[in-house]
Amino acid sequence: MHYPLTLEDEELWLLPQKAVYWPARKCLLIADAHFGKASAYRSLGQPVPQGTTTANLERLDDLISALPCAQLIFLGDFLHGPGSHATGTLNAVRAWRERNSTLVLTLIRGNHDKRAGDPPLDLGIEVVAEPVLMGPFALQHEPDAHASHHVLAG
What we know:
3-stranded mixed beta sheet, Purple Acid Phosphatase, chain A, domain 2, alpha/beta, single chain, 4 helices
């Protein structure tokens, strides 16, 4: 199930799984994944449940298996914080990446990414600053207006 939306003659699908799919580009847009959020809180001594990274990766698997995706763009906040670099979190993301090795991954840095640091290089994620201009869209983390493009933001 999706809600189709047309902007500048480009069809986008708004998905209930907190994602946008761009069929013409076979591109999935995800904002604020915050992988390792629970690990980051636990590293600060706060007791929180485990499994949030696994649940988020399973949601991505479901989307990727349902849609013909060639590219996945994270619109910021891939990792939650410095504590997100926990071994368990990164190993789960690495295993997911191995299963999706042909998928082109791009991360547009968000505010949490600046604090957390870039994901490890072995994940094969291109990390860039905002905005990324793609067709008629400015892909960004922050919803600031762009002078010439429609903004798709986290």
